[in-house]
Structure prediction request, 404 residues.
Amino acid sequence: MEHKKQLLTSRIAQIHDPVQKRLLQDVLVDVFGELLTYSEESFDHLEQKIDRERSDPDSRYYVYTGVCKKEGLDSASRSLFEIHREEEHPQGYLGTLFLACDYLQIRSCLTRTYRAKVETDIGEYQTTVSLSYCRFYLQAFQQLYEWFAANQRQWHTINCPFLYKMLDITDREGIVPQDAVISKVSIDLEELSAFAMDDMVLVWNLSEDICKPRVDVTVAGNVSYYAHQILMEDQEAGCLAVPEGEELFTVIFSEEGLLVRTEKEAHHDLKLVKIEPMYREKDHTDLEFPLQTNLRRLRHADRQALGQPRYLWTKGEVERILSAYEVFQDFELVDICPDMQGETETLDMNPFIRVHSFLKQKRKIAVVLHAKDSSDIFRYEKMFFLLAELQLCTEEYEWTGILR
Prediction:
């Protein structure tokens, strides 16, 4: 189609009478010009509507994670929030530290014990301590997966390499009194002492809210249930419903909001978990390391592949899947090795995936990756995130990774 101005000019140029030309100019510009503008805008809106329908359906449900010191939190942040920890701790718990070193070094730390000096409000104690993955943070991420599953939302592995560097300190000798207020724990980590960081917390772009839905009672067959209508004002955020005390419930998503069906009771105060959009320029959280995310960018080939019944596991196909994820920018795919012989290392960085993918006597396939930055202390955790995403795509393979 000709440009609007060129089209109008070509029509007016055919008239030679000045009066008729002036009248035609007014009619074409005022009437047909507006029609052309309306037509172009409508076509543009149609293109945007089709693009939204073909875009990633999980675009509002990607999770960002980070780590910072407690004093580095931004109380006015609209994107990142501290993962609040419970007040009660297991017996022998002395605190949590962040160990900023390589995954292989941390794994060796988990099998050792260390001498520590514990300062409390009632005195100092010398004891033996051990380190383990932070129980509370592991439970928090496990709960997030359960929320996604309960809402029947397709979920992805959470890319949180900081999670496995947050370590709980446990008193192995039981010397420190449980009611003592601990002010400082000094651990002799030998060559790793320089990598220990205190007062660190994990943050993510999840917030909790309590809404007051409109509740109706409906009947389906011989069963009655409560229908909770929730209108969403923030169309940029993803939302999960978490009705308290309900093990089985149904959530129906729409552009206007959520419809939550429960059987036990009507929830006049219903808990929502919101996945907030990330406004990097408006957030002033003092992060110790760059944010990590499971964000992916769906291209035309990726959209086409979503409709395919199965994947062809070639090096090119694996690279296409991995390259959609932002974190893959830190790697290069060297090769894939199908039908690996012998034992492969278990995916202990993804306990949820290991439990629910039923890895029983399956064909083994290894992904050989090259980390662009060999000094990146998170490279192993990022690799395991990518492996977990591949594991979700298939049932006939057991995936493992090799870094070179």
About this structure: The first helix runs from residue 4 to 12. The CA atoms of residues 231 and 257 lie 4 Å apart. The two ends are 54 Å apart (CA to CA).
